[in-house]
Q: What sequence folds into this?
């Protein structure tokens, strides 16, 4: 093999962009994959959205937790909010739809639909991808098309129409009942998954009296029983960012979330995120965003419920 060809095939791998859901995201999102192509990325931000996407054309590699699926046309995937996932496109075609549903979207009037999501077997990591026949895939694509139009329109009983089509989509997929074969992820990805999972757990600041414990690359490496240099190189090679950059990105995301989604004081958020004082927190935030925490809170959008 020519050296140039060998290097291209053996040493170049696509970078997975680590994406966090915006803190002001709508509670229901649906997009057409032709108009909104999915790029290669890894999503570590758990506890947020149920995700469903349907492929009518194209191929790609999906990982849910530590399960790897090679997806193609006439397949649908279900992703639980508590799971880290990644996607890598392996074709130029990207037909189909995807939608994201925040648990808060259902509300009291649709609690039964939320319970259906919680109990649905497709959201288990080892059953996350279902193969469909041409006929089943066409029907499911029809449900997505209706939801896409409803979401962008202002018709009466819009939410009820979306919820009904979601339920029919789940029913049709469950009737198909043919789960896609999965394989184990490579060892390197396993370390990245465990790092991001640990990072998520470390930054789960939910109460005023809780605070971030792990803050340095060495502390995370110790928890994973690997050398910091090895973990740093592995993460950088697969994501394009160092451990320190990922830690700071996640710290900033949690700060934004707490500023927008709680009424905590700036000093309380500073303490919860493990800063030595409010001044240190404000300095970090301004360096990353060019605005102060209080200014960000004033101008940030309130999350939409519909």
A:
């Amino acid at each position: 093999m020519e050296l140039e060809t060998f290097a291209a095939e053996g040493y170049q791998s696509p970078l997975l962009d680590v994406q966090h859901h915006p803190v002001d995201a709508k509670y229901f999102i649906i997009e057409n994959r032709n108009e909104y192509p999915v790029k290669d990325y890894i999503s570590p931000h758990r506890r947020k959205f149920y995700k469903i996407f349907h492929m009518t054309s194209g191929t790609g590699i999906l990982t849910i937790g530590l399960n790897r699926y090679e997806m193609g046309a006439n397949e649908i995937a279900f992703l639980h909010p508590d799971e880290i996932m990644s996607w890598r496109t392996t074709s130029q075609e990207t037909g189909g739809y995807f939608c994201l549903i925040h648990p808060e979207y259902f509300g009291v009037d649709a609690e039964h639909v939320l319970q259906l999501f919680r109990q649905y077997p497709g959201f288990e990591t080892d059953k996350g991808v279902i193969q469909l026949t041409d006929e089943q895939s066409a029907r499911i694509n029809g449900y997505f098309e209706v939801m896409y139009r409803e979401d962008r329109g202002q018709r009466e009983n819009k939410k009820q129409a979306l919820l009904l089509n979601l339920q029919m989509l789940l029913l049709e997929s469950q009737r198909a009942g043919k789960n896609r074969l999965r394989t184990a992820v490579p060892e390197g990805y396993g370390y990245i998954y465990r790092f991001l999972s640990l990072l998520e757990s470390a930054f789960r600041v939910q109460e005023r009296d809780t605070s971030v414990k792990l803050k340095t690359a060495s502390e995370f490496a110790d928890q994973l029983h690997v050398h910091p240099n090895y973990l740093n190189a592995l993460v950088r090679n697969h994501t394009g960012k160092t451990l320190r950059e990922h830690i700071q990105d996640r710290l900033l995301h949690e700060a934004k979330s707490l500023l927008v989604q709680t009424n905590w004081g700036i000093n309380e958020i500073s303490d919860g995120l493990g800063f030595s004082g409010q001044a240190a927190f404000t300095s970090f935030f301004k360096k990353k965003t060019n605005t102060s925490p209080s200014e960000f809170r004033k101008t940030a959008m309130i999350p939409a419920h519909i």
Summary: The CA atoms of residues 120 and 171 lie 10 Å apart. Residues 187-299 form a domain with the Arc Repressor Mutant, subunit A fold (CATH 1.10.10.60).
